[in-house]
Amino acid sequence: MMFNLEKSAQAFAEAKQYIPGGVNSPVRSFRGVGGTPPFIAGAAGSKIYDIDGHEYIDYVGSWGPMILGHAHPAVTEALREALQHGTSYGAPTLLETELAKMVVRLMPSIELVRMVNSGTEATMSALRLARAFTKRNKIVKFAGCYHGHHDSLLVKAGSGATTLGIPDSPGVTGNIAGETLTAEYNDADGLEQLFERYGEEIAAVIIEPVPGNMGMVLPRPGYLQQVRNISRKYGALLIFDEVMTGFRVALGGAQALYGITPDLTCLGKIIGGGLPVGAYGGRRDIMEQVAPAGPVYQAGTLSGNPLAMAAGLTTLQVLAGTPSIYEQLAAKTTSLCDGIRIQADKFDLTLQYHKAGAMFGIFFSAEPVYNYETAKKADTTSFAVYFQAMLEQGIYLAPSQFEAAFMSAVHSDDDIAATVAASASAFARVADSKTR
Ligand SMILES: *Cc1c(COP(=O)(O)O)cnc(C)c1O
């Protein structure tokens, strides 16, 4: 049967009449690869289903949260139980403390933690806190790192390794963007130079320890420790944005994997178990500045929502309570990446394969990719050909070269074998498209 997305195409056309671009978050619209996004009817385990009747093996996992797979029985049961007691109170509950205790136990750099509703809110609040704590205004971020869509962080690099911020979106004022300095990821010397010039003014360095939003990039050996040392030397806070990597690359996140102690950590995605949650936490003396303990204001009507807490807590309990789950996730990720590489090699396609724990990314680039500059050189046309060929064969990848992919605990050996087999014919199509 021909692969067709007729119902999805109709649904997309209708959605566009009521929702900007037809989607509630831009990358869902498939601008990066062309074609129609499948509209989703449901998901279970490692599979996701569209309204046209297709089944896909899912490596998006709602962009990270679904590390246990979709509709995990324990998470579903926890939600059903929570639902019987009402959906929101705007008052303290036992579940919030339980989840906070769990986070503090799994990430020792976190002594106090505040729940919010999204990763964006977490990084926004962490920056405000860092500025208040240090009484400094400037922030350093890295080109290609994404920390959510609020004004201070919606800034990319201008030309050169280190430039003053230029807004990435209309509506972000030059004044706000100007407080954001941009450095190149994996370049400790560049960061040091930025600090030599602006050190007294820099409140914090915010970093995705393992970037997953310019495609997946790995830190060079020792790099994260250098970032820690430089920020400490100049009295700036180090904020690890572990919204994606937290409970993903290891149970204790990238900070456990690489042995780094940040001052503040931002969380999201897995901590909500598929419901809208974010969190920020860290050193007690810093976090005690947050209202009502301290003067730094931050609040949320639905923060600590009982359904979200139930889903997040249960997800973390399963992760923490399943021996060797991260070894198994890493082994599956390795087996998949190795399988894909063998197929690509058959067509003389030299690609870059990056993986850490249950997260991986493949760049259509013959050159090493270690920062935003090198990521941007990837062959997005070939990626789009590969992506569409995979989709047609029932493999659901993120619809952009510049996103990571996620393994879940319920992806089976059969799922992996099917993905490798699909890659063989997808690479054939890529090779064919290159010779035209
Ligand atoms: C997804 C993501 C965010 C934003 O989280 P939202 O819940 O989408 O607001 C921030 N930082 C990183 C590293 C992310 O991957």
From TrEMBL:
Residues modified to N6-(pyridoxal phosphate)lysine: K269
PROSITE patterns per the UniProt record, alphabetical: AA_TRANSFER_CLASS_3
InterPro entries: 4pyrrol_synth_GluAld_NH2Trfase, Aminotrans_3, Aminotrans_3_PPA_site, PyrdxlP-dep_Trfase, PyrdxlP-dep_Trfase_major, PyrdxlP-dep_Trfase_small
GO molecular function: glutamate-1-semialdehyde 2,1-aminomutase activity; pyridoxal phosphate binding; transaminase activity
Reaction(s) this enzyme catalyzes, per UniProt: (S)-4-amino-5-oxopentanoate = 5-aminolevulinate
Mitochondrion in keyword set: no
Enzyme class: isomerase
Compartments (UniProt record): Cytoplasm
Required cofactor names: pyridoxal 5'-phosphate
Annotated pathway: Porphyrin-containing compound metabolism; protoporphyrin-IX biosynthesis; 5-aminolevulinate from L-glutamyl-tRNA(Glu): step 2/2
GO CC entries: cytoplasm
Alphabetical GO biological process terms: protoporphyrinogen IX biosynthetic process
Entry superkingdom: Bacteria
EC number: 5.4.3.8
Alphabetically ordered keywords of this record: Aminotransferase, Cytoplasm, Isomerase, Porphyrin biosynthesis, Pyridoxal phosphate, Transferase
Family, similarity comment: Belongs to the class-III pyridoxal-phosphate-dependent aminotransferase family. HemL subfamily.
UniProt cross-references to PANTHER family, sorted A to Z: GLUTAMATE-1-SEMIALDEHYDE 2,1-AMINOMUTASE, GLUTAMATE-1-SEMIALDEHYDE 2,1-AMINOMUTASE 1, CHLOROPLASTIC-RELATED
Known partners and oligomeric status: Homodimer.
Name recorded for this polypeptide: Glutamate-1-semialdehyde 2,1-aminomutase
Gene assigned in the entry: hemL
